[in-house]
Specification:
With about 110 residues, the protein is an all-alpha fold. It has a single domain (about 10-114), classed as Ribosomal protein L20, C-terminal domain (c-terminal domain of poly(a) binding protein), CATH 1.10.1900.20. It has helices at about 5-20, 30-70, 75-85, 90-100, 105-114.
């Protein structure tokens, strides 16, 4: 009896991966083994960079808050310490947005902690 192989399922599996790498360059988009490796590596990068993005945004927010409070003669660490002392609970994302887009509100917060 001949060996039975489910070609429909294996072709569908390959087709799914090839559709996912459709926009890539060179053989990564149409050669199965290269495409599979490119897809797997891309998934690794995506997993890693979802975590890296959080770090990068936190660094950006801290830099923006620091630049905002330096105008009022205070450092970031002192500002954050005083915020916690006064029990003002505003996260860094909101503080950075206020420092950039509404300086008068940010100044009111700085004055509240001084």
């Amino acid at each position: 009896m001949p060996r039975s192989v489910n070609h429909v399922a294996s072709r569908a599996r390959r087709k799914k991966i090839l559709n996912l790498v459709k926009g890539q360059f060179g053989r990564r988009k149409n050669v199965w083994t290269v495409a599979k490796n490119a897809y797997e590596k891309g998934q690794q990068y995506a997993y890693r960079d979802r975590r890296t993005k959080k770090r990068n945004f936190r660094r950006l927010w801290i830099a923006r808050i620091n630049a905002g409070v330096r105008q009022y003669g205070m450092s970031y660490s002192v500002f954050m310490g005083r915020l916690h002392e006064k029990d003002i609970r505003i996260n860094r994302k909101v503080l950075a947005d206020l420092a950039m887009n509404s300086p008068e509100t940010f100044k009111a917060i700085v004055d509240a902690v001084k």
